[in-house]
Amino acid sequence: MINLLPPDVKKEYRYAKINVTLRNWILICLIALVGLGAIATYGMVSLKQSTRHNNAEIVAAQNTLQKEKFSQVEQQVQDFSNSFQLVVKVLSQEILFSKLISQMGAAMPKNAYLNGIKIDLPQGGLNISANAVDFKSATQVQVNLADPNSKLFSKVDIVNITCGLDSVDKNYPCNINMRALFSTDNPFLFINSGAITK
Q: What's the pLDDT tens digit per position in 132-182?
């Protein structure tokens, strides 16, 4: 088909076609921009709602913890732990004297006997006095009590030995005074005796 239209009209038709195409593309771009704006707006609104929801949950959890007095309970647990540690420390220094005295009596040599025990709390030791027939028996008392196999004491020192006729007990005229420190694995300490587990 032969187009007999004048060149000006042909030009106008061509421009009209280009205008329609451009208008369609502009319309498509506007629709895409509106869609992107809607998506961005929805994302922002969802983010704000999620933030508000999380903040509300945090405030509720803090209120619950305050209501339950969590910090007070934690302090009470800490106090209980400290008290328990104090009990263990005290019990580790408690002595089962009934067993200790019978063991010390068994450690006495034949010609000597236990005369007295005095507790020295600050140093954690004992002052021990005994009577013996002679000087040799008196020194044997110290040797027997210091014997590591008995596990009674880690150290036993002689303070003094006095032998004389003016002694109160004429049959055992020698008096020995000693200072003893408990050994850490002493089975006569309450904590080592197994009494806690029974």
A: 999 888 889 888 888 888 777 888 888 998 888 777 778 888 999 999 887
- Quick check: is 89 in a domain? no
In a domain, residue 69? The reply is no
Q: What secondary structure, in 3-state letters, does the chain show? A: CCCCCCHHHHHHHHHHHHHHHHHHHHHHHHHHHHHHHHHHHHHHHHHHHHHHHHHHHHHHHHHHHHHCCHHHHHHHHHHHHHHHHHHHHHHHHCECHHHHHHHHHHHCCCCEEEEEEEEECCCCEEEEEEEECCHHHHHHHHHHHHCHHHCCEEEEEEEEEEECCCCCCCCCCEEEEEEEEECCCCCCEHHHCCCCCC
172 and 115 assigned to the same domain: yes
Q: CA-to-CA distance for 145 and 152, rounded, in angstroms?
A: 7
Q: Which domain holds residue 17?
A: 1-46
Count of structural domains within the chain? 2
> Taking the mean position of all CA atoms in its chain, how far away is CA 111?
52
User: Which candidate, 158, 156, 98, places its Cα nearest to that of 132?
Assistant: 158
The reply to whether 66 falls in a domain is no
